[in-house]
Structures are given as C-alpha cells and as structure tokens.
Amino acid sequence: MIIKWTPDLSVGIEEIDNEHKKWVSLLNDFYQGLMNGKSKEKLTELVLGMLDYTKYHFANEERYMKSINYPDFELHKEKHNEYVAKITEFHEKIVNDKMILSLTVTNFLKTWLINHIKGTDQQYARFANTID
Ligand SMILES: [Fe+2]
Ligand SMILES: [Fe+2]
C-alpha cells in the first residue's frame, strides 16, 4: 500500500469522502500491480481505470461546488482539467513506449491526490462549513 485514506483527508461529506477512498484504493491497486511486475498492458489498464474514475469523481464534485455557489469553482475545475490532461498524456506516452511506468509516476499520482484533497478540496469544505 502506497497511500492510505486517513480522517485528515476528510471533506466532511460522506459521498465525496467515499469517492476519495475509492480513488485511493485504485491508486493502491496500480502500485501493487507495478510492484508485482504486471505487464505494461495490465498497468496501462489500471491507469485508464483510475483516470475514468477521477473523471467521474471530478464531475460529481463540480456539481456539488455549483450547488453551493462555490466562488472558486472555475479555478478548482481548472485543476481537475490539468490532472486529466496530464494523466491522458502519461497514458499516451506509455502506450507509445515513450515513458515507463515507475515509482516516479506513482509518487506523482500520490502527491497530486493528497495535495489536491488537502489544498484544494478542503477549501470548498471550509466554505461549506462541513469541516473546520
Ligand atoms: Fe477536486
Ligand atoms: Fe476530490
């Protein structure tokens, strides 16, 4: 396990926390696959699965932010878009053998996830008063 969901990652909204937990578990699956020496095909499949899930999660989160008239909505959405673009680029590079899935990639994904939840997601949670 490379990452664990801990209460300090909570946004105080059960549905969103559950989606973050799922995201964490998909990242762990990918890490596990990497550690177990799974094939490039299998690993890219895991990356795509994670990308699909984050798109689903981002859409839900954006809907929520709109529903509370969150003032920094656009900025937050931009960060989601940047992530999707980055992972899509990773995927393309891997498929074309221009990049190898490694711990560097895994650490990037992990750091992004944690920084995003703590630095960006928790901002709307504070705005909505669902966390302190
Ligand atoms: Fe977000
Ligand atoms: Fe999120």
UniProtKB/TrEMBL annotation:
GO molecular function: metal ion binding; oxygen carrier activity
Domain spans labelled Hemerythrin-like: 12-126
Highest taxon, organism lineage: Bacteria
Membrane-spanning ranges: none
CDD domains, per database record: Hemerythrin
Pfam families in the cross-refs: Hemerythrin
Alphabetically ordered keywords of this record: Iron, Metal-binding, Oxygen transport, Transport
NCBIfam families hit by this protein: bact_hemeryth, hemeryth_dom
Protein family per UniProt: Belongs to the hemerythrin family.
PANTHER family from the UniProt entry: BACTERIOHEMERYTHRIN
Protein name (database record): Hemerythrin
Organism encoding this protein: Marinilabilia rubra
